[in-house]
Amino acid sequence: DDDDDIPQLSSHTLAALQEFYLEQQQREGMKTSQGFNQYSIGSIEEDWQLSQFWYSDETASCLANEAVVAAGKGGRIACVSAPSVYQKLKEQDGKDFSVCILEYDKRFSVYGEEFIFYDYNHPLNLPENLLPHSFDIVIADPPYLSDECLQKTAETIRYLTKGKILLCTGAIMEEQAAKHLGVKICKFIPKHSRNLANEFRCYVNYASGLD
Prior knowledge:
GO terms for molecular function: nucleic acid binding; protein-lysine N-methyltransferase activity. α2 packs across α3 and α4 (about 145-160) packs parallel to α5 (about 175-180). The chain is of the alpha/beta class. Helices cover about 30% and strands about 20% of the residues.
C-alpha cells in the first residue's frame, strides 16, 4: 500500500495542532472585531528570535504609571525597547503627557509617527527631530543581557533623557547598570507574561515610587 510511507500525525499531535489553529483564528477574530484595542499587550505577539518577552499586565501598568508620575504634567516619555510599557501608556490616552517608542521590530510601525526604528548597534542613529535631552524620563529594556548591549543602549538613553532613567534588565546586570547609567536597583520586581529563567529587576537614578 503506497499510503504506508506517508507520515501520520498522532491523534494527540493532531488535536494540539487543531487547538493552536483555533486559538490563532480566535486571536485574529478579536483583532478584526470592533472592540479590539491595538494598544493592548499581546496585540502584537512576542518574537522570541528578537529576544522579546512582554511584561505581565500588572507590571506594564505599574511601570507606565511610574513613568507618568516621573515625567510630570505635560511630560515626554521615551520607551526604548519597552513596547508593552508603551502600549499601557497609550491605554491612558488623553492624559497630559506624550510618548514615543524606539523599537527594532517594525511591526510597531502601526503606531504611526510615535514609532522610531531603533537598532541598539547604532545607538545614535536617530531622526534629526529627536532632539538631545528632550524627554523627561526614558524607560528602557535592552534586548540582551550583555555588557555590549547595555553600553550601547545607555548611549541612546543618555542622549534622550533630561535626567531621569528607568531601566529594566537582569539582576546580574546591576554592576554594569551602575557603571553605564548611575542607576540603583529598586525593590519592585517586574514580572513577565511568561516565566523567564533570568531574574529581572528595575533600576532608577531618581526618587521613584518603585521602592
